[in-house]
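We were asked to recover a plausible sequence for a given structure. The inputs and outputs are reproduced exactly as logged, with field labels preserved.

PROBLEM: sequence recovery
POSITIONS: 223
GIVEN STRUCTURE:
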């Protein structure tokens, strides 16, 4: 794991946005398109704000979430809503969006179709992950109902997930998809998450799902 510490959050968000854009740009030099997977939650908004204004051939960037809360897209907890408001606008409006959500009561109602769309975009070229204080990443929560299945190397690309720290049903990329990314970044803030991250390094993914990716990841941290 490579830990990159920043003097403050604002600087980190801007610098990380630049790094991600540079990686996408580099990838596009040798590939027809790039798959860019990003987290929801409260941390990445400022990264998205900066990214959306960066000059890049966004029309060849396919954006997807690492996980989604199964709520309508105009719900305050919808990660899709966050993306539309902060990332898929300005220059980045040209990006192709690969949804993890569809209009249905439960994720299981639409998962086959959503999963097929995700499978066509793999491997992920550039992956950005968040992490919770409980060491979950994407919607792979310790104690969630199908975590064990989602950690298997032959897990389907997308799975529904309930329980653990999740408030509502979730849909999430699974371990093989996250581990298969060409480049992996994790962004965290504050002393509590820093301590959790350090603990996770010595733990198994079943207890600390972020541990799945830590060996290969660059972790970006600011107080
Ligand atoms: O939908 C989500 O909740 C996320 O994708 C999730 O995996 C997030 O990255 C962590 O929960 C950290 O969330 P915060 O940034 O809000 O602390």
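RECOVERED SEQUENCE:
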């Amino acid at each position: 794991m490579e830990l990159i510490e920043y003097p403050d959050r604002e600087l980190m968000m801007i610098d990380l946005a630049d790094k991600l854009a540079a990686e996408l740009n580099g990838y596009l030099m040798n590939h027809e398109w790039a798959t860019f997977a990003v987290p929801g939650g409260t941390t990445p908004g400022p990264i998205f704000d900066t990214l959306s204004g960066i000059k890049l051939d966004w029309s060849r960037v396919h954006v997807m979430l690492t996980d989604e809360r199964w709520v309508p897209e105009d719900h305050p907890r919808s990660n899709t809503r966050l993306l539309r408001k902060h990332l898929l606008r300005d220059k980045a409006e040209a990006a192709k969006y690969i949804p993890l959500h569809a209009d249905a009561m439960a994720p299981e109602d639409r998962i086959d179709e959503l999963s097929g769309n995700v499978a066509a975009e793999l491997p992920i070229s550039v992956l950005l992950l968040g992490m919770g204080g409980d060491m979950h990443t994407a919607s792979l929560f310790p104690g969630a109902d199908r975590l064990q299945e989602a950690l298997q190397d032959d897990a389907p690309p997308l799975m529904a997930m309930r329980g653990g720290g999740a408030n509502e049903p979730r849909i999430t990329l699974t371990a093989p998809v996250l581990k298969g990314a060409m480049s992996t970044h994790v962004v965290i803030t504050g002393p509590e998450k820093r301590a959790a991250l350090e603990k996770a390094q010595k733990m198994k993914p079943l207890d600390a799902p972020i541990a799945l990716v830590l060996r290969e990841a660059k972790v970006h941290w600011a107080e």
